[in-house]
């Protein structure tokens, strides 16, 4: 048994706001529509903010999928905020705003919660449990690498460093890519099946999200050198109770990966080659594992540095706790601090902070 989860966020750091209609046309409508047509169950994690600006056509498709038992709505933070960087009251505000909107819009209560950027700390499960959530999605590789809790003493090394170098265009790209494929396959082999129980302030079940599996599937769909859908399926054969795909819906149909476009047809080729039953993510079995997960994210080094160390990010993180609602939600949007944010996304957050400060004077 495997599951699919699609994450949707129209505040995406690298996507211009002018492109939003195109994102909906190329990704949201064809992906959701095709999966429903093929009667394939999947989890859908769309931020509350995104739901408020999606056209009625998409909302009706989602309602159709929920009614037919094919879509499991998943909660997240309302504006894709990095929760470990927020005061606890703001964590809860983000969680509640998203949940309330989904309950009102779809008349269902999400069971699972998707951590934006899979950014986690051990107090967040308690807040989620307090607000009605039964399980969470968390980074599987960070679970494997949580045996040592102080990264200042023992930094975490990426599991496939050569592939990351190839993606960044460093050194001999093709050689790094070939070496990276070997590292990636070994990382896929490390992925264990099923949910786990996270030892936290309040224990919670978690579905591991395996970045290596996501990457292997995307390389297969994109038909990168030495990869195709059947090859990706071969890498995953024998895996059970895991997420086959658990990342951005925008990568399927709209956003290129290293210049290659992926399609829903390619993903369905992987599913067909695997010949495996697909389920809603809440139906994945529990592995019996119980473990502690360190404060982490799904960045290559599993840290929060991407959203903290840059001077602009540091300034936003310093100022955001002083912003009042409703502008706080825009100021907290993680994509103002993203991997490679566009100026307009960053300005949205700075502008919200200024407007709140000026309005309160």
TrEMBL record:
Source organism superkingdom: Archaea
Pfam family, one: Glyco_hydro_57
Amino-acid biosynthesis as UniProt keyword: no
Assigned keywords, A-Z: Carbohydrate metabolism
Keyword Membrane on entry: no
UniProt GO molecular function: 1,4-alpha-glucan branching enzyme activity
Transmembrane domains' residue ranges: none
Ranges where the Glycoside hydrolase family 57 N-terminal domain occurs: 17-287
Gene Ontology process terms (BP): alpha-glucan biosynthetic process
Family: Belongs to the glycosyl hydrolase 57 family.
Name the record gives this protein: Probable alpha-amylase, GH57 family
UniProt organism field: Thermococcus kodakarensis (strain ATCC BAA-918 / JCM 12380 / KOD1)
């Amino acid at each position: 048994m495997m599951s699919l989860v699609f994450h949707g966020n129209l505040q995406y750091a690298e996507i211009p706001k002018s492109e939003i209609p195109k994102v909906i046309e190329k990704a949201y409508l064809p992906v959701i529509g095709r999966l429903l047509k093929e009667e394939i169950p999947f989890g859908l994690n769309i931020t509350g903010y995104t739901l408020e600006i999606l056209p009625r056509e998409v909302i009706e498709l989602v309602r159709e999928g929920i009614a037919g038992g094919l879509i499991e709505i998943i909660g997240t933070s309302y504006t894709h905020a990095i929760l470990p960087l927020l005061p606890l009251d703001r964590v809860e505000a983000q969680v509640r705003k998203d949940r309330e909107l989904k309950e009102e819009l779809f008349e269902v209560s999400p069971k699972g919660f998707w951590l934006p950027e899979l950014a986690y700390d051990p107090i967040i499960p308690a807040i989620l449990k307090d607000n009605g959530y039964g399980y969470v999605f968390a980074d599987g590789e960070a679970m494997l690498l949580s045996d040592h809790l102080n990264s200042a003493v023992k930094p975490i090394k990426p599991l496939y460093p050569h592939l990351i170098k190839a993606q960044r265009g460093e050194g001999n790209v093709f050689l790094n890519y070939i070496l990276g494929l070997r590292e990636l396959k070994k990382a896929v082999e490390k992925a264990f099946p099923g949910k786990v129980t996270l030892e936290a302030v309040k224990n919670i079940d978690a579905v591991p999200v395996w970045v290596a599996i996501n990457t292997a599937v995307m390389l297969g769909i994109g038909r990168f050198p030495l990869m195709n859908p059947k090859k990706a399926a071969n890498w995953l054969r024998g895996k059970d109770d895991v997420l086959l795909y658990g990342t951005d819906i925008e990568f399927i149909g709209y956003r290129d990966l290293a210049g290659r476009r992926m399609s829903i047809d390619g993903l369905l080729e992987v599913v067909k080659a695997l010949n495996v039953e697909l389920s809603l993510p809440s139906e994945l079995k529990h592995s019996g594992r119980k473990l502690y997960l360190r404060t982490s994210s799904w960045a290559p080094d599993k840290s929060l540095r991407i959203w903290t160390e840059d001077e602009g990010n540091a300034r936003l993180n310093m100022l955001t706790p002083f912003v009042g609602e409703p502008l706080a939600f825009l100021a907290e949007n993680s994509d103002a601090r993203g991997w490679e944010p566009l100026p307009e996304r960053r300005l949205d957050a700075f502008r919200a902070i200024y407007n709140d400060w000026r309005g309160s004077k």
